[in-house]
Amino acid sequence: MFFNSDITIYNKIYDEDKGYDIYQKTVIKGVHFEDSKGANVIKSGLENADRASIYVPFKADMSRQYISPIEFKKLDDKSKYFTFEKGDRLIKGDIDFEPTTEKSIDENFDAFTITSVDIFDFGSENMRHFELGAR
Question: Which residues does residue 61 pair with via DSSP β-bridges, in sequence order?
Fold first, then answer.
């Protein structure tokens, strides 16, 4: 697999003390990022397709440890972990930005929303990866 980028993931976490969502940043180095504009034709007309496909090797350099979305939700202290979950945001590149709102992410970057997460955990260790769809 050809690695052409880094990505920054922003996991949305509801902060009960503050009473609103906060965004926890995780940088992942060494991913394959494909960005394209496209559309799928369906019976009722046009529907936007995923704009980006991101391939994240299990061996990628991650600033936090990956755990499943179910495990992530159960944790009280999420500071050492991250997850890939539909609706979370990502930006191409190693971004040094701590957003205060989702709007602040969109105002400052060409951000993507994760729409699908597939786990390919078979084959040799070099072949195992996550495949993210985003728009």
Answer: 29
Report the predicted TM-score, pTM, of the whole model to 2 decimal places.
0.87
Q: What's the token pair of residue 78?
A: 């999420």
Which alpha helices (DSSP H) does the chain contain, by range?
A: 69-74, 102-108
Task: Indicate whether 39 pLDDT > 60.
Answer: no
Q: What is the CA radius of gyration of the chain?
A: 15
Higher-confidence position of 1 and 120: 120
User: Rounded distance, CA 13 to CA 23, Å?
Assistant: 6
Please state, in angstroms and as integers, the Cα–Cα distance from residue 101 to each residue in 6, 97, 98, 124, following that order: 22, 12, 9, 40
Residue 66: partners with Cβ closer than 8 Å, 6 or more residues away: 81, 82, 83, 84
Tokens of 53: 């496909």
Show the tokens assigned to 27: 């940088």
Q: Which H or E run contains 131?
A: strand 129-134
CA 96 to chain centre: 16
